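Recall that a protein's primary structure is simply its ordered list of amino acids. Everything else, from secondary elements to tertiary packing, is in principle encoded there. The following example makes that idea concrete.
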Amino acid sequence: MSTPAPGRRGAARWRMAATLLWVALACVGPRAMAASWNEEVPEARLIGQGDMRWLGFRLYTAQLWSSAPRIGEREPFALVLNYHRRISREQMVDASIKEMQRLADTPLDEQRLARWRGYMMQAFRNVDEGDQLIGVYLPGKGCRLYQRDALLATVDDPEFARAFFAIWLSPQAHDTDLRRQLLGGTP
């Protein structure tokens, strides 16, 4: 068996290194190059904030950011959750699905729920005290989910986005006091 000439060996190594670099960038590139959530909501300002409590324990502090003075379905906005407790991804997904079902005008079919559960299982991570998750509502498109400034997922499903953010912003939200605080004290 003959050995390749040194020039050919070097070229093969270079191609291998270039291929590995391309694969690495393909895997982390979209996340690393994604715009931060602040760029999704230009000139964002804090609309309101409040704490989510369960059985007296503070779970997270929520903040609502928007460039518009009031949020609606025509302007992007961001919901920032700063966690004070450890919560598993499964707990977050289960609680979200339960609330989305409760708030729905009509019963949600199993296919839709499975699809929505899949979106959240892909995007959510277990959180610990000090972690921050951000959801950005994109009118007519869906939403983007971030952990601090790292993009976790883009969900191109406007119906999911409306149902997801309704957990906090619907007039029938479980915690109406938190909703009022997020909306800057307006009902």
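The chain has two domains: 1-33, 37-182. The chain has a mean pLDDT of 83.
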